[in-house]
Amino acid sequence: MAIEHRSGLFPYLLSRVSEDTKKPAPLVLFLHGARDRGTDINVLLKWGLPRFVDESSPLPYFFVAPQLSEGQTWVDRESDVIALLDNLITSQPIDPSRVILSGFSLGTAGAWHIAASHRDRFAGLVAVSGRVPTTLETSQLAALKDIPIQIFQGAKDEKLSIEDTEQIVDTLRGLGGTVDFTVIPEGDHFIADEVYRDSKLQQWLVSQSRRQASVVASN
């Protein structure tokens, strides 16, 4: 699949849906991990969701992956991430009610923070090998109760505690949130290839809508 290299607030990768698609399509916004920061955006294509998109035939969603400079975090660039999202929704046939935010490791910490701060912007959150920032309070987690969440973690991940993640899952569910927690039994920290190529997750990415979430929440 053709992935464009673009620049603006940051360099970013962009792939489009098939030109035959007439209706506005979903968008998956991906935030990479710490080791992929820098000045060579091609490193994003070596694995995980960017690699899956690059190696796939045209997918039913737009895909965008910005790149941080060394030393930066996604929390630092929160306003720029939202500005990039706004720009894409304005310039591309994207359905703003079907935007999925996903992150790996450092990107997951950023995704939790950005989703909690802009809960009306996202139809779903996919968190891979990353912890919830300790700066997020319960009141901010409550902002996520209407956003369906998929969490993936390797059972052999030495950087993260399964128990800590389970506690967050229990907290979110206690607040009324919809959370699926998947543990990869033989997985370590670097499970992104396995997670993102899963057909069930790929279907989930295009089946979420903020309108559906609001209907479910009102029942």
Automatic annotation (TrEMBL):
InterPro entries: AB_hydrolase_fold, Plant_Biomass_Hydrol_Est, PLipase/COase/thioEstase. Gene3D superfamilies: alpha/beta hydrolase (3.40.50.1820). Residues 79-194 form the Phospholipase/carboxylesterase/thioesterase domain. The keyword Signal applies. Keywords: Signal. GO terms for molecular function: hydrolase activity. It comes from the Bacteria. This is Phospholipase. It comes from Nostoc sphaeroides CCNUC1. Pfam families: Abhydrolase_2.
